[in-house]
Write a structure and sequence with these properties.
Elements (H helix, E strand, L loop, with lengths): L3 E3 L2 E3 L3 E6 L7 E7 L2 H20 L2 H17 L1 H12 L3 H21 L6 E3 L8 E3 L6 E5 L7 H12 L3 E5 L5 H15 L6 E3 L2
Parallel strand pairs: 7-8, 8-9
Antiparallel strand pairs: 1-2, 3-4, 5-6
């Protein structure tokens, strides 16, 4: 049974749902935990508590974490692409390509985490300066659809983590396998402090 990840621990859900292959309904991809409101609140609280420490982490440590995640996604693109195709119904080349794209997204934001400079722009108003900097907002809640179950979460999770935010990730109910596999890599390869990343399916 694939559990939720809350406050640095894999936790059983309030209930469990089957993940069924849409192209062969006899094929059960796996059993996945479903969180309830209480577990979701625990994840939000854990992310809130962990975020200030993550924001203070060095740019290099955040970059290294994202780079490790991206490297593992690329190394396991065929395996994860097969899982994605099996649970969602994409062709295998599309599934593999999506995982590769997600890996590249994490690697791109590993680089962006090191670009600490901002931008200074001309204003249309006299005597007014426009300055753009990137600072963490706090806890980022990420609710994603089923159609790109690894790429869309990567597009959202990687920049949130790169700039010092913590994350609570709620994937679409139709694709928990892809979300769980991505989350397991984020947790293990990223070596993030407890509470920085949470998965509530």
């Amino acid at each position: 049974m694939h559990k939720n990840f809350i406050a640095g621990e894999w936790i059983e859900g309030a209930n469990v749902a089957l993940n069924i292959n849409p192209s062969d309904t006899r094929d059960v991809v796996g059993h996945y935990a479903h969180a309830d409101a209480t577990q979701t609140e625990l994840a939000i609280d854990a992310a809130f508590d962990a975020q200030p420490g993550w924001a203070r982490a060095t740019a290099e440590s955040r970059s290294d974490a994202l780079d490790r995640i991206g490297s593992e996604l690329l190394a396991r693109s065929e395996e994860l692409g097969r899982l994605l195709s099996r649970e969602e119904g994409k062709t295998l080349p599309e599934g593999i390509g999506e995982v590769m794209r997600a890996g590249r997204v994490f690697k791109f934001f590993a680089g962006e985490a090191l670009r600490l400079g901002g931008e200074r722009l001309a204003s249309i108003r006299a005597g007014v300066d426009v300055e753009v900097t990137r600072e963490p907002e706090g806890v980022v809640g990420i609710i994603t659809p089923w159609n790109f179950p690894i790429a869309i979460p990567a597009w959202k999770i990687a920049p949130a983590l790169a700039y010092g935010n913590s994350v609570v990730f709620k994937p679409a109910d139709l694709v928990p396998g892809s979300a769980w596999a991505l989350s397991e890599i984020i947790v293990r390869a990223g070596q993030l402090p407890a509470g920085v990343f949470n998965l509530v399916m």
